[in-house]
Design goal:
single chain; alpha+beta; MutS, DNA mismatch repair protein, domain I; Dna Ligase, domain 1; globular
């Protein structure tokens, strides 16, 4: 298997600079005004030098880099450029997966005959994408999705790396555990506290240690550290919705209980949106009464994937939708229209 991973470099900022070239070489932070509640959606390399990173509160980003240009996201433009990139990759590869608005996989297994040297072909594809969209990107080519994604991370910015088949474990071993996709701000400190600093440290230990600590995800963690990933490239098709529902153990009229449930549902939906790197601008609330009468209400909003934004709109929809003094059996939140 040969898998190509493509990641558009500082995608939101790169699009903003195409729209306004005066932003070139300046610290840029996309997310909104630092005077408002919100988080960083994307930032330039110049801003990252000051410690700014994605998902950081905008107020904190301003404290670190007050000279930065703060911009409200232009998600319609980001979506347009993302689709242009996707079209080029889809037209050039047999199987393409759009992992997020700025990240793609392509399965090029068995394509040596039509493409020739796959690494050189991937470089040509990179030049094509950059030439047609004027957007910078990095890529990694390896035997599976996990290793190719890590390779892209090592290659950034505007770089490219090919990991030869059989060399996965050797490539991964000296890299810090924080470079492993899926090792976040919770897991990384735990591994460091155990004296595990490098990906190779995980690979050298028994997988039973990680299975005992983390269950099935621990097994996957160890396999990834050894350069093993069995997940296939999933053909590109737009996900229609992300949502969550809760059926009450007993039908209820308890408003605080229902609002608390909505908060938990919003957290679940927001977490999945962020994991998939989706943004939504359409939220639907579903309410089912004890007599099984079901009502739904939908409203558009600014693109978001944050729990509190989803909850705030869901609460408004709930108060508009709950019009009968009948106990409630089920509540649900769903989101559509993704970037």
């Amino acid at each position: 298997m040969n898998t190509l991973h493509i990641d558009m470099d500082t995608f939101f900022v790169s699009v903003e600079r195409l729209l306004d070239p005066s932003l070139n070489n300046r610290p840029v932070i996309v997310g909104g005004s630092p005077l408002e509640r919100g988080v960083v959606a994307g930032c330039s390399r110049e801003a990252r030098r000051y410690g700014v990173h994605s998902a950081m509160p905008l107020r904190r980003a301003y404290q670190l880099c007050p000279r930065a240009v703060f911009l409200y996201p232009k998600f319609v433009h980001y979506a347009e450029y993302s689709e242009r990139v996707a079209e080029i990759i889809v037209d050039s590869t047999p199987v393409t997966e759009k992992a997020s608005i700025d990240e793609f996989y392509a399965d090029v297994t068995g394509c040596e005959r039509p493409y020739g040297n796959l690494f050189e072909w991937a470089k040509k594809l990179k030049r094509t994408i950059t030439g047609e969209t004027h957007l910078p990107l990095s890529f990694g080519l390896a035997s599976n999705k996990f290793v190719s994604k890590v390779a892209t991370g090592v290659a950034k910015t505007r770089g490219d790396i090919c990991v030869p088949v059989g060399g996965e474990r050797r490539f991964l071993a000296p890299l810090p555990v924080g470079m492993m996709p899926g090792v976040g701000r919770v897991l990384e400190p735990e591994l460091l506290a155990m004296g595990i600093h490098l990906i190779g440290d995980i690979a050298r230990l028994s997988p039973r240690i990680f299975v005992h600590m983390y269950g099935k995800s621990g097994q996957v963690l160890h396999e990834h550290a050894c350069g093993i990933d069995r997940s296939p490239v999933v053909p590109y098709r737009k996900r229609k919705s992300v949502g969550a529902e809760h059926t009450f153990h007993e039908d209820t009229l308890d408003v605080p209980c229902m609002l608390s449930t909505l908060q938990h549902l919003a957290m679940r939906v927001g977490r999945e949106l962020r994991e998939r790197r989706f943004l939504t601008n359409t939220i639907t609330l579903k309410l089912r009464y004890a007599d099984f009468v079901t009502k739904t209400l939908t409203q558009r909003c600014d693109y978001t994937n944050h729990d509190m934004n989803i909850y705030a709109l869901a609460e408004k929809l709930f108060r508009r939708l709950w019009t009968r003094r009948v106990r409630v059996r089920l509540l649900g939140i769903s989101t559509t229209n993704f970037l």
